[in-house]
Amino acid sequence: MVVIGLAGLPHVISGAAVRAEEARSLDENPPTSVATNRAMVDKVYRDRLKRYGSDGNFLIRRGLIADRRKRSVRIQAEAIAMNTIDPVEFFLIAEDSGHDYEALAYSFARPSDIHQALEFIGMTAGRPVNYEKLFMWPKGERVWMTFSWEEQDASGNVVARQEPAEKLIIDSRSGRHLPVEGFCFVGSQWVAGEGDAKPVYAADVYDPESIASDYNEPLTVLDIPRKVVQGEVYGYQRVNPRCRLPAGSLVEIILRPEFSGGQHRVVDLSLRVLARRGGGGRGMKCMRFVLETPAGERLGRGDRLKDMLAVFERLEEKGHDIFLTVRPDHALKLICVRDFYIFLSGMLKGTSLRIEPPVEGDLYYRAFLPPESLRDPKRRPGQPWELHLDRMVSGTLTGRLVHIEEIWHGDEEQPEFKSTAFACPGPAALAERLGPGTGGLPVLLVFADPDITYGGLLDFIHPVTESRPTVYVFLESSSSAADRSAARCQGRYVP
Prior knowledge:
By secondary structure, the chain is α+β, with helices and mostly antiparallel strands. It has ten helices and 29 strands. The protein has three domains: 2-257, no CATH class; 266-362, 2-Layer Sandwich (Nucleotidyltransferase, domain 5); 370-494, Nucleotidyltransferase, domain 5, CATH 3.30.420. The protein has helices at 20-24, 34-52, 111-120, 202-205, 230-233, 305-317, 334-347, 427-434, 454-461, 478-489, and strands at 2-6, 9-13, 58-61, 64-67, 72-79, 90-94, 103-107, 142-152, 158-164, 169-171, 176-177, 183-185, 190-191, 200-201, 210-213, 222-223, 237-239, 250-257, 266-275, 287-292, 298-299, 321-328, 353-355, 385-391, 397-407, 416-424, 443-448, 470-475, 492-494. Strand 3 (58-61) and strand 4 (64-67) form a beta hairpin.
C-alpha cells in the first residue's frame, strides 16, 4: 500500500491498481481494493473530526472535507474499472449507485453531503433540468472539478497527476476531450418521502444517484453547462486513454467555485415584447423590446432591437449565462410573435442565452416553431386534435375542430385516415369537447390566421391548456388548412 500526502490530505492508492499493466488494460480483471479503501476513508474521517471538528471553517463528512476559507471541497472517491470503448455517462456517482459500469468513479461522500459542502463554502444551488416544467437548460453557478490521482510513469515511478474532470472523457466523434467549462451547481431535487416521511434528496436515493453527469441529468448535483440530451451523446462519450484513472485506486476530487469575489455568472432577465404605438403591421419593426431585471430595473438605452442585442452582447462578453423570461404583448399579431421566436431561436445557437418557462397563461416559445411534419397526418406519430381558427368580420374568433382517426386494414403498411370536423364557435365549445377528462393525446395543433392576436388565441384555448398542455401553432389561412386536412383524409364535417 502506498500512502502519500496530497495537498495536506491523506491519499491512498492500491499497489496492485497502480501497476502500469493493470492501469492500461482490464483484461486481467485487477483485484478490487474496495474494502481497503473504505477502511482508509473511515480512518481519514475519524482523524479529520479530531483535527478539525471544532473549527467552524471546516465541514467534515465521511469522504469529504470542505474548507470555507479556501472555498474548496475535497472528496474521496474510488476509480471504477472501465475500458476505453465503454460509454461514460457520469464523472462521479454515489457509492451505492448501480451505474458503476458507466462512471469514472464513485464517491465515498453522499450526494447530499456534497451539496451541503458547496453551500458551506458560499455557493447557492441552482436548478436541474426538468423537461415537464420546461426547465430545458441546467441553471447554476459554475464549479471547477479536478481529479487528482497517482499512477506509474514509463519508468515505473509513482507520479502525482491532476486534470480537469472534462479531460477524462472524449467524444469519439471528434477525438477531443469535453470542453473545460466547469459544472453547474444545480443541486438535484428535494422530493417527498414515502408516507409522512420527510423530503429526501433525490440523488441520495433515486437512480442513477448522480453527483456529476456528462449529459443533462434531472437528478444530478452537478451538470455540464450545455444543453445535452442523453440520447444524443450516449455511446459517443468515452474514457480518454490519455487520462485513464488506475482502476480501484482512491482518488481525490477537488471542487472550487468559478468566482471568488462574489461575482455571479447567472443573470435572470425579463423581456417584454410590445407592439409599437400605432403599429399594426408585421415584422420586427412593429415591435419594441423592454429588458428588465427581477427587481424591475430597465436595461438598455432604448427599446429597439439593436438596443436589446447590445445588452445581450455586453453580458455575454462578461461571461454571464442569461436566463430569459419572454413576455409577448397579447396585442401582438401571431405572425409577429412567431417571427420574433424564430429570430430568438437563432440566437440560442452558440450563445449563453437560455429561455425560461413562460409566465402563467403564455405559450412556450417552441409552440411557434412546430415540426413541419406535424402538418401532415400521415407523418405524425399519433393524431392529436386540430383546432382551425379564423376571424369573423366582427373581429371575434370562430373555429373548427378536426379529429383524425387511423383505421387499419389487415396487414397494410399505412392506415386509412378518416377526418371529422366539428363546429367550435368559442372557448366554451372547445372546453366541452377537449377539456379535462375528455381523453386523447395531451397535444393540440392550432392552425390560425396570422393576423389573429396572441391574446385572442390564448383566450380561445385557455379552457383546454390543462388537458392539452403541449400546443403547436401553425400560421396560415385556417379555413383552407381545414379544407386541405379534410380533403387529405376524405373526411366529413359535423356542424
